[in-house]
Amino acid sequence: MASVYELLLNSLKDLGKDELKAFQWHLKKNHKEISHSEMEEADRFKTVDIMVDVFGEEEAVKNTVVILRKMNKNNQAKNLEENLKQGNRLKLNYSVYR
């Protein structure tokens, strides 16, 4: 079974360079715990590491799903949710986020 890190990374892998920057922009904009300097040169791996370090696994997943949906990347958001549910990795409750 894939780890949460791997699932988060997979959800970002199909984002192009500009889309990754947009994802990081949403992350910084909505979460003051993440500084501009942390994201400035962050690749996908570093972005996932920062999210899990700052939020923990469950919140990192929730934030990723919310941001992907804001970016109209609904397939990636749905796939992340389904992969997590299949693995029973986390109990996700998105009612606050929708």
UniProtKB/TrEMBL annotation:
Domain Pyrin intervals: 1-86
Name of this chain's protein: Pyrin domain-containing protein
Organism: Sinocyclocheilus anshuiensis
InterPro entries documented for this protein: DAPIN, DEATH-like_dom_sf
Pfam families in UniProt: PYRIN (PF02758)
Gene3D superfamilies linked to this entry: Death Domain, Fas
Top-level division of the source organism's lineage: Eukaryota
SMART domains associated with the record: PYRIN
